[in-house]
Amino acid sequence: MSLLRRMRYRYDSTDGNAVELLAGAETFYPRILEDIAAAQHEVLLGTYLWEPDEVGQRFLEAACDAARRGLTVRVLLDGIGSHRLESEHLEALRSAGAQAVIHHALRFPLFDSRLFRRYHRKLILIDGQIAYTGGAGFADSWATPPPTQWWDLMVRVRGPVLVPLRMLFSGDWKRTTRNRMSPLQAPPPEPVGDARIHPLITFYSRRELMRRLLQAVSVAEHRVHIANAYFIPGFRLRRALRKAASRGVDVRLVLPGPRTDHFAVWTAGRRHYHRLLKKGVRIYEFQRSMLHSKFAVVDDRWGYVGSSNLDSWSGRFNHELDLGITTPGPLEELDQQFEDDVRATREITLNQWQARPLSLKLLETFFGWFDPLL
Length: 374
Known about the structure:
- By secondary structure, this protein is of the alpha+beta class.
- The chain has 2 domains: 10-193, Endonuclease Chain A (Endonuclease, Chain A, 2-Layer Sandwich); 203-316 and 324-368, 2-Layer Sandwich (Endonuclease, Chain A), CATH 3.30.870.10.
- The protein is 37% helix and 25% strand.
- The protein has a 16-stranded mixed sheet that branches. The protein has a two-stranded parallel ribbon with strand order 7-14.
- The radius of gyration is 20 Å and the shape is globular.
C-alpha cells in the first residue's frame, strides 16, 4: 500500500469530546433509533451483521423513514455478515431514497482474495454530530434475554472526533462504490466535553489497535483489564501480559464462556490459559450469556472500545474501528463496566485448569493448528 493510502486511514487524537458507554441492547438500540428519528441532514450506517429479523427490520424501517424525510441515507453492509438480507430489503431502502451497497459481496469464484477482507467496523453517524461504534450489529441475537443474548458494549460519542469518523466512512464508501461522498451541509461539530479520543483503524494488516495495546501493556504499572469476545492472542501480546503480571500488575481477562458462536475459536484460545495463569494472569469466563464486547483499560492512562477481536483474522484481514481513550473520567466508567462484567463470570484457576479432561486438551491442540484461519 502506498504511503498516501496508509496516511488516509490514520487519524490524530482529538480533544473536546463527550463519551457515553451503553451496555446491552436494551440500552443502545433505543438510543440509536431515537437519534436516527431525530436526524435532520444525514444518516450513515456501516455494519458487519444485519439480519432480516425483528431488530433488523426495525433498523431498516428507521433508515427508510429517514430517507423519505429527505435526508441523505447511506448504508454500507458486509457481503458475508449481512448475506441474509435479500435483494428485496435493499430495494426497499433504495425505493425510499437511501443508498445501500455491499462490501465485497459473495460471488464466484468464492476464493477471490477479497473474500477474506471483511467490513467488520460498526459505525453509525448522524448529522455529523453523533457517532456510535462498538461490537454490535443489527439482529435479534443482541436483543434476546440471557442466556441466549449476545452481551455487548457500544459507545456514543459527540464532538470533534466526528470529523475523522466521517472521513473514515467516506473512504470506505469510495472504496466500495468508486464514488465520493458529498460534503455534509451542516455546521462542524463543536467541543462538547473533555474526552480525548483517538480513532484506531485496522486496514490491510495495519494493526493500529494492537500496536497501541502492546505499548500500553508493556509500561503498565497497576492494571490491565481486557474483555474480548474472540481471544487467540499472538505471541507478543501473550508475552506482554505475562511480563506485566510478573511485575505485579493486576492483569485480568474477561473472556467468553461455553456460550459462544465459534467453538473452534474459543477452544483454540483456551490453550494459552496455562502459561498465562502460571505467571499470575487472572482469567474469567463469562457465564450469563454470550460475551461479544471488545474493550480494555490499562492503568488510568489508556483504554479502548470498538470492533476488533484479539485474533489473527481481525488483525490480518478485517476492516476494524476502535476508539482509543486517554481521559480519566471515561476510563473509570470503562473499568467499572469491566468490574460489572466480572460479576457475571466464573474464574478459572491454575489448579482447575490443570485438572481439565484430556479430551479438552486434545481439542485445544487440534484447533490450535488452525490459528491463522480463526
